[in-house]
Amino acid sequence: MAWLYIVVAGLLEVGWSIGLKYSEGFTRLVPSLLTGAGIVASMALLSLAARSLPIGTAYAVWVGIGATGAALLGILVLDECANPARLAFLGLLVVAIIGLKLTSGH
Question: What predicted TM-score, i.e. pTM, was given to this entire model?
């Protein structure tokens, strides 16, 4: 169950990180409220997962999912740069997340 919490928490992190862009520095009410709710929910799920997973693994996977997802959504939705080097490094990040999962012992 802890891994499910981490995955959902990571997806929520993607949502709230993109929400930061749409909240325009917390000056728009609805995007700001949704972003804040995403932050709280993401952290709550991370804390639940950290009860049974090593904190270093849980945190790294959470951040990795969030960073990868935010970068991909930035490329797909916000028209950010998608050069080959950036995509290669995102691929390395995904490999690292999978490696942490496989070597966590849980």
Answer: 0.86
